[in-house]
Amino acid sequence: xxxxxxxxxxxxxxxxxxxxxxxxxxxxxxxxxxxxxxxxxxxxxxxxxxxxxxxxxxxxxxxxxxxxxxxxxxxxxxxxxxxxxxxxxxxxxxxxxxxxxxxxxxxxxxxxxxxxxxxxxxxxxxxxxx
Length: 130
What we know:
Layout: E1 2-11, E2 19-26, E3 34-39, E4 57-63, E5 66-75, H1 78-84, E6 100-103, E7 108-113, E8 118-119
Antiparallel strand pairs: 1-2, 1-4, 2-3, 4-5, 5-7, 6-7, 7-8
């Protein structure tokens, strides 16, 4: 299930546990907001839970009512994506490559995935580097 964060309600710590609680809405078609609590260990590519901000798009996988995996796909601003996103190890190549880009189709800064590279949020083709 893809969601856009509407509000960060609570970033748990010490007594509240290692969680983040969000008000989220289904992406892209909207729908009613729901409250989602994510354990720190479920964040697959986020550096730290306190770096999640409104406007970010997450892919959530559930095991029952619990979020088992939460993957950051995109953010409204380049700075917020770069700050929160834990990139996979990057092997050296002789040419530059696109890691993220401003997707004109879904209007967010998106993680570039796949081969050929596409927007992780909507699947639009990533720009090429010359």
